[in-house]
Amino acid sequence: MCCRLYFLLEDSGVVESREWFALLIVSMGQVDPAAHTIKSHGASLARNHLRDWLILLLLLVIEIVLFAIHPFYRFVGRDMMEDLRYPMKDNTVPVWAVPLYAVLLPIAVFLLFYMRRRCVYDLHHSVLGLLFAVLITAVMTDAIKDAVGRPRPDFFWRCFPDGVEVYDKWGGVVCHGKVGDIKEGHKSFPSGHTSCLGFLSLYLSGKVKAFDRRGHVAKLCIVFLPLLAASLVGVSRVDDYWHHWQDVFAGGLLGLVVATFCYRQFFPPPYNDDGWGTYAYFEAMEEESRANSNRNNVNSLGVQGTEVEVVNQEAGGRNGSDAFTHFSIYDHIHSPTLEAMELGHK
């Protein structure tokens, strides 16, 4: 249609250059130069999800409270101490490192994909989904920790740092170690270090189209990298005697389930043909497609109006008249004659 319009206008002398015609097509809506960037859609997208960000703040407050309160001090008897005499060691993966690999590293990956595709929907929803996954997992993990109060493998040395055992008349321990060490010693189940990389694995599986049925096993290696890192972190928790293996297994399973639910809030399944994008992106594309379709309908009517103008101009030339009958490109919308012609054409 565009080519037909160009040559029609060129023959009639209305168009003198292709640059002018390109500007005309852009103004008529044939080309949509806008992109879904932070500058163009970021503010409106954040406003639409303002409640979600407020809920994140609420989850953060709840997590701080759960971390600060004392856990349930479960009964620990003399016989139970046989399995809790592992030495106290420093963390191979310290607590301050958890936000680095669980939050900042995935966000850095999200930013790399944003720099390539310039899709603010993908960036916003991936960050929002990640934070939801991390905070919901943290809240659930610490709530279970406080409720269960399972002693850590090194609980003996937390309770009796000098090695002198003291028990009450029921055979329960009477700890005389540091309050902070004893409090932390009752937070073994489940582990929180291993529950934070499932979202990144799901995100990568969608972006590289790991399940496109083409058999590229190398894509699975990319998907498994975050899971491998989480597994190694879990192994370090057992090696440092901060957790039992059941704690690590339960924490990893909990984190993976929560990450899957949070990921599916914003993204199709990774095995879906549209798994590389967000639901919001495809909805925006559909809306723009409908808008472009409406503009194209108006533009097609504009082409018919232009053809009528050229025909009238040629008829005037054959009658020896230099008069130029001018019709606006959109004047035919209100023209009963053209509406009748259009209905007859249909």
Any overview of this molecule?
The chain has 346 residues and is mainly alpha-helical. It starts with a helix and ends with a helix. It has 13 helices and no strands. Among the domains are: 31 residues; 181 residues, no CATH class. The chain is elongated, with a radius of gyration of 33 Å. Helices cover 62% and strands 0% of the residues. Helix 5 packs antiparallel against helix 6, helix 9 packs across helix 11 and helix 10 crosses helix 11. It is a multi-pass membrane protein. It comes from Senna tora. It is found in: Membrane. InterPro entries: PAP-like, PAP2/HPO, PAP2/HPO_sf. Keywords: Hydrolase, Membrane, Transmembrane, Transmembrane helix.
Largest sheet: none
Please estimate the helix content: 55-70%
Spans of 5+ residues with little confidence (pLDDT < 50)? Answer: 1-34, 320-346
Strand content: under 5%
Give the SSE string: HHHHHHHHHHHHH
Short description:
This protein is mostly helical and about 350 residues long. It contains 13 helices and no strands.
List the topology elements:
Elements: H1 2-11, H2 18-27, H3 38-48, H4 50-68, H5 98-117, H6 120-148, H7 155-159, H8 179-185, H9 198-207, H10 217-239, H11 245-266, H12 279-318, H13 336-345
Helix pairs in contact: 4-6, 5-6, 6-11, 9-10, 9-11, 10-11
